[in-house]
Amino acid sequence: MAIGILLVGGFGTRLKPLTNQTPKPMLPVGGLPVTEHQLLAAKKAGITTVILATSYLSEVFIPYFGDGSKWGMQLKYAVEKEPLGTGGAIRNAAELIDLEAAKAEDEEFVIFNGDVLSHHSIAAQLEFHRKNKADITLHLISVEDARAFGCVPTDDQGRVTAFLEKMDNPVTNAINAGCYVFSPSVISDIPLNKVVSVERETFPNLVNSGRPVFGYSEQSYWLDIGTPAALFKGSRDLVNGAFAAGEGTTFGPDSLATGGSSIGANCEIGQGVRIENSIIGDNVKIGAGALIRDSFILHGSEVQADAQIVSKYLSPTENLEISPA
């Protein structure tokens, strides 16, 4: 059975001010934190042991997810004292697992980038990895314009031939979609307690040395939620309708939510409230007659009656402008 590692230690710089108090993977999208969507995807693929590789605001994860029993999973937490890069984070997280036993049982590791929403089949990616006896298998997607990404060319069998940086004329539109299957021997080769980038070091080094690195191509829903605009789009896509609301949330008479808005659990929405294209966290109180449009209201916030909140980030301690368009 494969083991999951979620890379959830990033600072979320492009998402500020949304990440001032909440780590990027814990931001709500479609009513649930990004990390919860990823855990549900992992469980669907049969992965029930997952390590969260945390760093920035690491203390936010444990109170929400605990030991994972609520989801029928076993969760472990690897906290980096200093950011170690993607490779260093993977190696640090693997310290919580008996790597020698994993190698003996040929137990794969599935690595998830913490800022990606993907609907691809992880189970099919694992099967492809095993069929090709690969060291690493990356999920690849084809984008219309790969100039903003590094691209990943493959041969006819799907074997990766190079990892190329951003360029004006990409040789392929296939890009790294941020979900990897690692054989345990590859993880044990990553230096411990050292900053390592799998994208810039581990992957290219393995390809250049002739090791079997493959790309699993599946053109499914995929989104990098690294900017406010992308976060709002991801939430609208998941809601796929007028709005979604969490358990325990109540609406006063004549209140209305539209535009793919998502509203968390245990919120109190007053009379005559209008919510449009917005993300509302848990335990939020919104006074009667308030208008909230294109805004992000963090957990535990309170919106006064008749307030006009447009293109704002509101938390219990901050009220700042954002650009969600």
UniProtKB/TrEMBL annotation:
CDD domains: NTP_transferase (cd04181)
Annotated Pfam families: GMPPB_C, NTP_transferase
Ranges where the Nucleotidyl transferase domain occurs: 4-238
Domain named Mannose-1-phosphate guanyltransferase C-terminal: residues: 246-310
Keyword entries, A-Z: Nucleotidyltransferase, Transferase
Keyword Nucleotidyltransferase: yes
Nucleotidyltransferase is among the record's keywords: yes
InterPro entries given in the database record: GMPPB_C, Mannose-1P_guanyltransferase, NTP_transferase_dom, Nucleotide-diphossugar_trans
GO molecular function: nucleotidyltransferase activity
Domain of life: Bacteria
Family the entry assigns: Belongs to the transferase hexapeptide repeat family.
Protein name: Mannose-1-phosphate guanylyltransferase
Species of provenance: Candidatus Planktophila lacus
